[in-house]
Amino acid sequence: MSLRLSIQPLIPNHKRQAKLLALRPPRSNFYRPPKLLTVKSLAGTPDPASPVKPVWEKMLSTAASLYPLYVTFGGAVACVKPSAFSWFVERGPASYSFSLGFIMLAMGLTLELREFFSLLRQRPFSILFGCVAQYTIMPAFGAIVSRALALPPSLSVGLILLACCPGGTASNVVTLIAQGDVPLSIVMTVCTTLAAVLLTPTLTKMLAGTYVPVDAVTLSISTLQVVVAPILLGSYMQSKFPAIVKVITPFAPLLAVSSSSLLASSVFSENVVRLKSSITDASNFGIQGIFSGDFGVAVLSVLLLHFAGFFVGYLSATICGFRERQRRAISIEVGMQNSSLGVVLATAHFSSPLVALPPALSAVLMNIMGSTLGFIWRYLDPSDMKNGHKTKSD
To answer: Where are the transmembrane segments (predicted)?
Structure first.
C-alpha cells in the first residue's frame, strides 16, 4: 500500500487520464438512429433491423416501386389497342375480383401483425387522424365535385364510390419517394382497408343512393370477400408457414403491382371505344366541347377529387400540428385511393359500365399526380427545424 502511494504521484495526472481513456472501448463515428418499429408492405420498405438484402431482392423491390409507370404504360396500350386486354375483360368481373383478392393476399403475406399492433399502440393519434381524414375528406369532395360538375348519374356514382374507397398500396411507394412517414402510411392503408367493409358501402349508399339504388349489404359482403379475407389469410399463412412465406415474400410486391396494373388497364380498355367516340363527337366544338363529353368531364372530376385529397389532407394535418413527414404521409394517403376496389365493386354491382370509368381513370391519373408530388417533395427538406413552431411528436 505504501509502495503504491509513493509511486502514484510520480505519474503525471494527464498521462493517467490518457491511459484510462485508452482502456475504454472506441466510440463509433457512425450515427445510429433509434430503432423504429416498421411494418413491411407492398412498397418494399426496408427494415433497418433486418439483414442486408441480396441484390436480386433489391432489384425486385425497385421493380415494384415503378408501379406508376406500369399503370401509365398499360393505360397507353389500352388507348392504342384495347383488344390487348380482351382476354382478361371477357372473364370479368370474376377476373377482376380474383386480381384484387390476390393483391390483398400479397399485402397479408408481407404484413407482420405483431409490428402492426405495436405501432398502433405507439402512435394511436396520428393513425386515427389519418383514417378519419381518409373517410371524411374524400367522400365529402366526391359528392361536392359530382354536384358542382353536374355529372351524369352513372359517373356521379362511380366518382363517389371511388372517393369512399380506402387508401391504396401505391401511397406507400409514393410516401417513400416523398421522404414521408412510411410506417404511418402503411398502417393507415391497412386500417382504412379493414374499415372499408363497413364504411365504403355505408358512405356510398348515403352519398350516391340519391342517384341509383345502392345495396350496402351486398357491397359489404363483396368487400369482405375480396379485401379483408385475403389479408387475414395472408397474415395467417405468415404465422403458420413462415418458411414458405419467406420464399414467396420477395416476389409478392412485384406480382401485386403487376396485377393491379392489369386490372386498371383492362377496365380502362373497356371504355376506350366509348371514350374515343365521345372525343370525336366533341372535337368539333373545341376544348369546351371535349370537356362537355363523358370523357372530359370524367377526367376533370377525377383530377379535382385527387387534388382536393392531397391539398386538404396536407392542410388539415398542418392545422393539427403534425410534423412535416407525417403531413406528407397523411396527404398522400388521403389523396391516393384503392382504385382497384372501386373497379371491382363498380363492375360487380352496377349495370352501367360508366360507373367503373372514374376508378379506372383514377388508376392512371392518381399515380401520375401522386408520383409527381412525391418527386417534388423528395427535393424539399422535410426537417421540422424549418417550420418555426412546435409540432406533435405522435
So the answer is: 67-88, 94-113, 125-149, 155-177, 184-204, 216-236, 248-268, 295-317, 329-348, 360-380
CB 344 within 8 A of CB 360: no
pLDDT the model gives residue 209: 76
Instruction: Please name which of 270, 347, 317 lies closest in space to residue 125, comparing C-alpha atoms.
Output: 317
Question: Within 10 A of 47 (CB to CB), how many other CB atoms are there?
Answer: 16
**CB burial string 304-329: b at 16+ within 10 A, e below:** bbbebbbebbbebbbebebbbbbbbb
Residues 225 and 370: their CA atoms lie apart, in Å, by 28
- C-alpha cell of 317? 394535418
The better pLDDT of the pair 220, 160 is held by 160
pLDDT at 35 over 80: no
pLDDT at site 285: 44
Least confident of 42-46, 69-73, 74-78, 239-243: 42-46
Query: How far is residue 95 from each of residues 226, 250, 355, 365, measured CA to CA in Å?
Result: 12, 24, 18, 23
Choose among 156, 263, 261, 267: nearest CA to 214: 156
Identify whether the C-beta of residue 83 lies closer than 8 Å to the C-beta of residue 90.
no
What one-letter code names the amino acid at 312?
V
Q: Contact, 231 vs 101, CB < 8 A?
A: no
Q: Are 208 and 153 in contact (CB under 8 A)?
A: no
Residue 275: predicted pLDDT:
62
Contact 160, 146 (CB under 8 A): yes
E strands along 80-219, which residues? none
Instruction: Judge whether residue 16 has pLDDT over 90.
Output: no
- pLDDT tens digits for 245-264? 888 888 887 888 788 788 77
In DSSP terms, which residues pair with 322 in a beta bridge?
392
Residue 278 has pLDDT above 50, yes or no: yes
Helix axes 113-122, 182-208, angle to 10 degrees: 90
Distance CA 262, CA 83 (A): 13
Q: What is d(CA 95, CA 103) in angstroms, rounded to the nearest whole number?
A: 12
Give the C-alpha separation, 197 to 187, whole Å. 17
Alpha-carbon separation of residue 24 from 8, 14, 17, 58, 106 (angstroms)? 21, 16, 11, 38, 49
Question: Is 70 exceeded by the pLDDT of residue 104?
Answer: yes
Q: What separation, in Å, do the N-terminal and C-terminal C-alpha atoms of the chain show?
A: 58
